[in-house]
Amino acid sequence: MRFHTRKWVKPEDLNANQTLFGGRVLAWIDEEAALYSIIQLENKRVVTKYISEINFMSTAVQGDIVEIGIEVVKFGISSLTLNCEVRNKMTRETIVTVDNIIMVNLDEKGKPVPHGKTKIEFVKDRLEGGD
């Protein structure tokens, strides 16, 4: 799994127990999945269709740094299925895992449209002509 994003846990990210608020983590996951999908599918019109069971395993506190990892599970016709792990860089513990996040590729009218992708592509490979 590749960890693309780091977040610094700040006071506004905490719950009443002074630990990382689960809703904040879910927002970070949704945003990371969208950004990853937009880059992979080369289309800014991508939406979250489904998020499977979310498993909270540990937490973070103010000042910790967390990392968000995304991995492609499957390329569908108009969708991309991902899984995600959020881990605490300071304690090395997994905070959250999500087995399936389904992102859907849309056209200008907001309807699902085939994306034509079958494998992970890296931006550097696109820029270098895919060598």
Portion of residues within helices: 10-25%
CATH architecture: Roll
N-to-C CA distance: 23 Å
Overall tally of domains: 1
Mean of pLDDT: 94
Strand content: 35-45%
Query: Stretches where pLDDT falls below 50 for ≥5 residues?
Result: none
Biggest sheet overview: 6 strands, antiparallel
- The ordered string of helix (H) and strand (E) elements is EHEEEEEH
CATH topology: Thiol Ester Dehydrase, Chain A
* CATH top level assignment: Alpha Beta
Radius of gyration: 16 Å
Question: Which term fits the overall shape?
Answer: elongated
Give an account of the 3D structure:
The protein is of the alpha+beta class and 131 residues long. The chain has one domain (2-126): Hotdog Thioesterase (Thiol Ester Dehydrase, Chain A, Roll). It has two helices and six strands. It has helices at residues 22-41, 123-127, and strands at 2-8, 46-51, 54-56, 65-75, 79-88, 94-105. Strands 1, 2, 3, 4, 5 and 6 form a six-stranded antiparallel β-sheet that branches. β5 and β6 form a beta hairpin. The longest helix has 20 residues, at 22-41. The model has no long low-confidence stretch (mean pLDDT 94).
What's this model, at a glance?
The chain has 131 residues and is of the alpha+beta class.
Give the key terms.
131 residues; six-stranded antiparallel β-sheet; alpha+beta; 2 helices; Thiol Ester Dehydrase, Chain A; 19% helix
